[in-house]
Write a structure and sequence with these properties.
Four copies of one chain form a homotetramer. Chain A is an alpha+beta fold. Chain A has a single domain, classed as Chorismate synthase, AroC fold, CATH 3.60.150. Chain A is 24% helix and 25% strand. The first copy, chain A, contains seven helices and 18 strands. In chain A, the strands form six sheets. In chain A, strands 1-2-3-7-4 form a five-stranded antiparallel beta sheet, with helices on one face. Chain A has a five-stranded antiparallel beta sheet with strand order 9-8-10-16-11. Chain A has a two-stranded antiparallel ribbon with strand order 5-6. In chain A, helix 3 crosses helix 7 and helix 5 runs antiparallel to helix 7. In chain A, 67% of the residues are buried. Chains A and B meet through strand 1, helix 2, helix 5, strand 11 and helix 6 of A and strand 1, helix 2, helix 5, strand 11 and helix 6 of B.
């Protein structure tokens, strides 16, 4: 059940980096929803590799084939199912990794969990490649949400030590510098959902923070998630941190948004805001220390192959996708009440 | 399903702050486990109110009655079920809140979700009181884990602007100052689990970060969760952030622990480390702006009643409890493979 | 997770026959529903033991205490939680059973599953006593359904070789004869739900037959479940078995109801009809062959204690309760679409 | 969530009769299991159409393409995912059905549930075609179970009024007669699982009867499921129905098997025996009464297209598949304890 997520909307991912395909089954979409394939393709292109010098040159068409769930481009109640073929795989790049795990990567823990049968090619099911079907599912939900007045947008707010306030060019320079050094760099993505209806979520394990965090931490390389002012709230007093309520044309709003749109696990109707910290890509060209698992001896490792120097660069659509799945799931759940 | 958590170990909480009782049903514990009631009582006392000047003077015996699941103090395979009576309730304190929601609290969002039937007494099911049965469940798991060599300990690392390095007294002074000001203050709790076996968790939605974050965000007032070096990793390069592997007496260890014991969603065998940010208690004595829901007009609110000036002070056992539930659940899940 | 059932409405049972209590947590009820305690008590009395010569003389008040989920007798969105104390327990009756399992009972399989820590007193968590909290949950749902125009009624259609057409007295005579012989007898219960809205359920694992059967087989002693004409349909041709559609005042009805109100797993709006076969109570006074588990030797067993000679006699409310849980759950689920 | 089944082993089906494909995602298989493709193909052939005069002449290669989950034919821990292309579709056959539902079929209830967006081609997601991916998943589990000493075999025990004791030819004659009459006929399939370890399952909703029935009722056309002597037990006394225990070389066996291998929801180690009743194929050539949904008027319907005159004929492998999924799931679940 590691590959399934959601309550009313059940999203099941499948695939490995170098298997014939990756894909997704989405169970629980209402019947009668038109899928805009052009819009979806544009969304998928935002996360696709091979776009610029700053990202991995691996090229994937990343075009999902919808093999079930549609009649004439409209959902029919059967699970919407998409298959994306893996075309540009180079398994040879990864052979040595079977014995020497890459520091910071899932190689070692996959070995402990699955043993010698694990897929050592390109990270197997731990690969960022699995975010492609995540974006198919999330991309469809983003379309539906937009039609219902919910708009979700994520953006990079920091790359390494360069904040977004320094400008996009400065952030790309930081990535480029890391690439030239045979290194990589981390980043922070901030996501804002506007138009989210109040009343989604619930107390305790039904809280939107719990559900959003569970989805966002499923994206490879995420090491922190915070809502509203997040960790900064720990330094404040209640009188500084509390958001005053005010009437606004028959609705209740807050005058500030430190709470990030969630109170008591339930959406308040204010913009839902959260940030995710992405660690630097663990696969770097620099020499690193590791272990030969077969000989249990220290050894050096130099990771070759094609890798993004900054996964955060392509992460915004993945974060939007994760947020869309949770928010649309909560909307469907709430409609039942 | 907002009140149930876990995969193999299913924990279901129930109760409201001013209902006759709160409690928990724990389904999935193996048969044959002795519960140490003294140890559990000592653990419960760590979160109990009424201990010092710094926490709410509400006094609760907080003694769970185990009404099912045991034969002679040993689990028998039936769900372990505990009921904790709510004895010291003062519903009168809360009447006014039915119309004027407290800023920063769940009052308003509960109203949106449940309407006029919601329990307005003491936060109802959103109350920190629900962490008592969470601690019963977590406390039992902590006992079992300790017998299996897993030790989980959480501690306060910051209160407001005072870091733990300033000493306990400085942190308590910060709380006391907030209390005297009719205000409250936030804090950060860090949790470390040692002895966690490698191989727990899984890729994507099965990742330990996803599952731990879902449990920890269920604790009222948590606004951020980060693993290992967390948000700080965003500022680093891969060569700085990656933890080198090394052999250590037949095992594989890492020489640093920036990853916080989880790689690719799976435990590495290194200490599992995470931090949770707690916002300042929203219930403060200072005058705040709010709205009369019946008249849809701006109004002032002054929260009376007994409230902790710093929920983080009592949060460490709750964080340990949440961590224990997830880790023991993952151990039971892994044993099946 | 053996003790939790449902999708939107999550019902968690707890307790053992001779634990301090049995009970239930019902998560997912809408807020704002008034519970009619008198009606519930009347419903509980239908399954209660001690009513007549034909059932076990064990007397239980069977009065649920609602410890959470209500404010002034109305649901508030928190899980509705009821505790029923076990008052009239006689553990001594069961001591010998720890070593010699009763034929037809769960004694042996509980030993295999839980080992020596199992609760050997009165069947532990396998006891028919667990149907008391099932009836609390189902009884509340029956009330809600009735207000929505859904009426569920179950009745005994056979006791041993005596069909209902022979009259109630003949069926009771059959039970009485078994009792005097130190024996027991089986029976069949038929349940009909009228007013069920069409469109509940779904294909495959979402089918109403799957969900109803899962709930009904959870009642101890059920060995068969069939819908509509059930097993008899196997002997028919399609032209005999198909139910013709006809218009009826703007609705679609069927002229016969061989399908029992479910087509393709989805309710048709026709009465939902199913039958459950109950085996004879396994606990009988007659000498039977069994095994001493400690000595692995053949031995005789004579079951003493108080046992119903025909569990089917008291089963009708349990079957109604199981049906109500599934149907109301499906209604809540469908409302979301 | 209508398309996902299982606890530890999560099986998700997708597809419609006339979509590009049907298929299955199997999450939770241990890593390191070799799939025998020849054996699987032979198993799939048992359910495939187009084999004889007695079944539908629709021909499908039914060859699953495994697009994920394997490395060199061995499971790697990622979900095993198979896609089966639908090649021989003739959507034109079904156009008229959009307005006039076939009696006994899901056409009408699908219309109620999904509205005008439903897939009216060949039954959409309600088609028996979905049993192909069910058999892929079940076929893999059958292989694994066989290696662990568990053997599952189902067979037809009745076709219409012809019992298996009359011989296969007599049963096929009954099918042939129905076909020539433009009619169809029902049947009963009995399934026996030998070598099932004792101790699988649990009380209440964890009972094997509940879980097996839920899976078997998911197969289209099943209207009844019974275990052991099933409905016949209702006519017996306890002394007739109870199965005496006896020691047998260090194990405990029962001398008879009225209980069908399950006591208290838990396997006893005796052969697990159950029967499923299949209704006659609803699609028949004879004229039937139905309703025009657009005009809400009575109308006649004659179903053309290719249909099995007896679905039970091809149902045995489907029943084996359903049983294998549940039993292997329960084995994986039990291994964790």
């Amino acid at each position: 059940m590691d590959f399934t997520f959601g309550r009313v909307l059940k999203v099941t991912l499948f695939g490995q980096s170098h298997a014939p395909a990756v894909g997704v089954v989405i169970d629980g979409l209402p019947a009668g929803i038109a899928v805009d394939f052009n819009e979806l393709e544009a969304f998928m292109r935002r996360r696709a590799p091979g776009q610029s010098a700053h990202v991995t040159p691996r090229r994937e068409a990343d075009t999902p084939e919808f093999v079930a769930g549609l009649v004439g481009g409209v959902t029919c109640g059967a699970p919407l199912t998409a298959v994306i073929r893996n075309t540009d795989t180079r398994p040879g790049d990864y052979e040595a990794l079977a014995d020497v795990p890459r520091p910071g990567h899932a190689d070692y823990t996959a070995y402990v969990k699955y043993g010698s049968s694990r897929d050592t090619r390109g990270g197997g099911q731990f690969s960022g490649r699995l975010t492609a079907p995540l974006c198919v599912a999330g991309g469809v939900c983003l379309q539906i949400l937009r039609r219902e007045g919910v708009d979700i947008a994520a953006r990079l707010t920091r790359v390494g030590e360069t904040p977004a306030s320094s400008g996009d060019e400065a952030m790309l320079d930081t990535v480029e510098k890391a690439r030239q050094d045979g290194d990589s760099v981390g980043g922070v993505v901030e996501c804002t959902a506007r138009g989210v209806p109040p009343g989604l979520g619930g107390p305790l394990f039904g809280g939107m923070e719990s559900r959003l965090a569970a989805a966002v931490f499923a994206i490879p390389a995420v090491k922190g998630v915070e809502f509203g002012n997040g960790f900064a709230c720990a330094a404040l007093t209640g009188s500084e941190n509390n958001d005053a309520f005010a009437p606004d044309g028959g609705k209740v709003v807050t005058l500030t948004n430190n709470h990030g749109g969630v109170l008591g696990g339930i959406t308040s109707g204010m913009p839902l805001v959260f940030r995710a910290a992405f660690k630097p890509t663990p696969s770097i060209a620099k020499v690193q220390k590791s272990v030969s698992l077969s000989r249990m001896e220290q050894t050096d490792i130099t990771v070759t192959g094609r890798h993004d120097p900054c996964v955060a660069l392509r992460a915004a659509p993945c974060v939007e996708a994760a947020a869309a799945l949770v928010i649309y799931d909560a909307i469907l759940e709430t409609r039942g009440r």
